[in-house]
Amino acid sequence: MIVRWLALVMVLVQFTIVLLRYVFGFSSIALNESVLYLHAALFMLGAGFTLLVDGHVRVDIFHARASARGKALIDLFGHLFMLLPSMAALFWFSLPSVINSWSILEGAISVGGIPAVFALKTLIPVFCLLLIVQSVACVLHRLLELRNRA
Fold it and tell me: Mean pLDDT of all residues in the chain?
């Protein structure tokens, strides 16, 4: 719920950047980077909720024409053999980079930018964990659907 406000903040910051740049001739690398940070936070922290409300992009070749049981089986396959393994792998392989980034308190992307790349990189494993938790919930929900239909 709080994450959606990042979209409004991001728009306001971008508006401020444009206003400062073209009206007052002022530019700030840190302000420009803040849009990147907000954008990353918005999408990476909102992905689990998007999965919850079934708002993610889906290739509807088989799903659209499938019965309720077929849809549940397709969703189970997607979660168990695609989403969960890919999120586990991304989590596993991103962790050393995030740990290293925190150990040196990795600074700005650009000179004069926000000195918190470690915080930005932390979004990657958090994103993975949020999607894993939501995916497990979806798997359990689909299994209950299949059990109740049988």
Answer: 93
